[in-house]
Design brief:
- The complex is a heterodimer of chains A (99) and B (450).
- By secondary structure, chain A is mainly α.
- Helices cover 40% and strands 4% of the residues of chain A.
- In chain A, helix 1 crosses helix 2.
- The longest helix of chain A has 18 residues.
- Chain A starts with 7 loop residues before the first helix and ends in a 7-residue tail after the last strand.
- The chains are: A mainly alpha (99), B alpha/beta (450).
Chain lengths: 99, 450
């Protein structure tokens, strides 16, 4: 793990997964930074000597449920619609997912 | 009376904020609010409430209805909050006047407030130096005399670091103590909102006003307060002290003169930075998915092609934000999730257990908040160097413990800056933490306010 380097092509692939179109320069810069960062981060292996059972939540929370009651659409909902970038009626306009 | 105070703060802001850049938006209508509150001065709620008429500045990742919620990012430059965060609701109910939004590192990603899309914040003690981050604007505003107190948020040290560098008091409550409803997420299992002020009493008053169960934030169901106050039984962490700059070490040891304490070792604690950044990047990459230019920010470039989302995120998000998103995506991807993210969660559990053990024999841990003194703007730091600055602060977030920073300056310290003394106590023991903070703040040897 210590010697792995994420090449800039891989970084562009990951950025694509994260929906970010990074530039060639940025990918090159990140290759350098990631090498340094991941080399340092691999020190956690010295801390974790064997697998520990993982819980689904780090802090034990209590489930809190509200009453299953219909709440009339509030003024807040209109305000939220007003913040959309492109609007049609009460809908947010989004890019086409199907060609 | 209240109106005069608001006018005075506005004057200070006019004089200094252009240079310090601590604030993003100033709310002039606060004067009108002050007038209204003055009419209510004779009422019960004014008399019973120590915060009535006090003036606050709020970090710009906390929602105030009708006000810009930029998170110091171009992505949200034109986004207005549609509701009040729970902490804002509570402060308004207590008669607090909200005067301005504070500048910060973009989406809270940073330790020196140089990563804001609205320009860096300067240290009010000496403008050649950074104020610390990511709540740099909040700490600067307090020290510069723009308000009575401010709210910041702390995920890996973002309240405590700027409090140390600006020589003010800052406090991060136990995880789950203060509602995060209305706080823009950085790391959902690590974030807490907390107060910053010039003295511990004010910080405590604000803390008591904002804490409490909130049905809008289920993580507040975790919190069980243990308000008992005890005499401090101090442990000082050797690894952090040894890793500190000379001045920081000397100042801390000066503060500990005449105190009874044990120097203890927590092996592996230096690895907490790695554990923290792995956890926070994973969580951050997840919560940032929503910023696609569709629902938030009134992004004009949004068009019909799916590519548009990738282009918008590239254009509107800053370098550090993108770095953390990509890193987080990498470590949670199928190929690497076992080697990195799952290991990081295990490592976090191990650190939590180590700290729990310390509190079996001691009731507070004292260390420097920052292992270095503030750095100058022209001191370039690589991303990793920046991450390492958080070495003393991340542990409290990983374990969910209450932690605060108290400014301290010995009489031998002829420099401009004092240091921040960090106090960490066991989970739920927030009031005890604040009490120990008071103890160090009030020490005769503490010359920070002279």
């Amino acid at each position: 793990m210590k010697d792995e380097v994420i090449k800039k092509e891989k970084i562009k692939e990951i950025a694509d997964l994260a929906r970010i179109k990074i530039s060639e320069e940025e990918a090159e810069k990140m290759e350098k930074h990631f090498k340094e960062i991941l080399e340092y981060f691999s020190s956690i292996n010295e801390l974790v000597k064997e697998n520990i059972e993982l819980k689904s939540h780090f802090f034990e929370a209590v489930t809190v449920i509200r009453e299953d009651k219909f709440i009339k659409q509030s003024e807040e909902a209109n305000k939220i619609v007003n913040e959309f970038s492109k609007v049609k009626g009460r809908y947010a306009k989004a890019p086409k997912t199907l060609k | 009376m209240i109106k005069e105070r608001v006018e005075k703060f506005l004057e200070e802001i006019k004089k200094k904020n252009k240079r310090l850049n601590a604030l993003i938006d100033v709310y002039e209508e606060a004067l009108k609010e002050a007038e209204e509150l003055e009419k209510a001065l004779k009422e019960k709620r004014a008399k019973e409430n120590p915060l009535f008429g006090k003036v606050a500045v709020i970090k710009n990742n906390i929602a105030i209805k009708g006000k810009r919620l930029t998170c110091a990012s171009k992505m949200l430059e034109h986004y207005y909050a549609t509701y009040d965060a729970t902490v804002i609701k509570k402060l308004k109910e207590k008669g607090v006047i909200i005067l301005a939004s504070a500048n910060m590192d973009e989406f809270a990603c940073g330790s020196d407030n140089t990563k804001s899309a609205f320009g860096p914040v300067k240290n009010p003690i000496d403008e050649a130096y950074v104020p610390g981050g990511s709540s740099g604007g909040s700490a600067c505003a307090v020290k510069a005399g723009f308000c009575d107190f401010s709210l910041g948020s702390d995920t890996g040290g973002s309240i405590r670091c700027p409090s140390a560098f600006c020589n003010v008091v800052g406090f991060k409550p136990s995880y789950g103590c203060v509602s995060r409803y209305g706080l823009v997420d950085l790391g959902m299992s690590l974030d807490q909102i907390g107060p910053i002020a010039n003295d511990v009493e004010t910080v405590e008053q604000v803390f008591l006003a904002i804490r409490g169960f909130d049905e809008n934030d289920n993580t507040t169901s975790i919190y069980k307060a243990n308000d008992a106050i005890e005499k401090p039984k101090i442990a000082v962490v050797k690894e952090i002290l040894d890793g500190s700059e000379e001045t920081v070490k000397e100042e801390l040891l000066d503060a500990l003169k005449h105190e009874k304490y044990d120097l203890i070792s927590i092996p592996g604690i230096e690895k907490a930075v790695a554990v923290y950044y792995l956890n926070v990047c994973a969580e951050f990459s997840s919560c940032m998915q929503r910023y696609d230019g569709i629902r938030y920010g009134k992004i004009k470039e949004l068009d019909e092609k799916m590519e548009t989302i990738n282009e918008i995120r590239q254009k509107y998000l800053g370098e550090e934000v993108k770095r953390r998103i990509i890193l987080g995506t990498f470590i949670t991807s199928k190929e690497w999730v076992d080697a990195w993210y799952k290991k990081a969660i295990m490592a976090r559990q191990i650190i939590k257990e180590k700290l729990k053990k310390v509190f079996l024999s001691y009731n507070c841990i004292i260390m420097p908040t920052m292992t270095t003194m503030p750095w100058k703007f022209n001191e370039k730091k690589s991303p990793l160097q920046m991450y390492l600055a958080d070495i003393a602060t991340v542990t409290a977030n990983l374990a969910g413990l209450p932690a605060g920073s108290v400014p301290y300056k010995s009489e031998h310290n002829k420099g401009k800056f004092g240091i921040g003394i960090q106090v960490i106590t066991d989970y739920g023991r927030d009031l005890h933490c604040l009490n120990v903070m008071k103890h160090f703040y009030k020490k005769k040897s503490n010359k920070v306010n002279e």
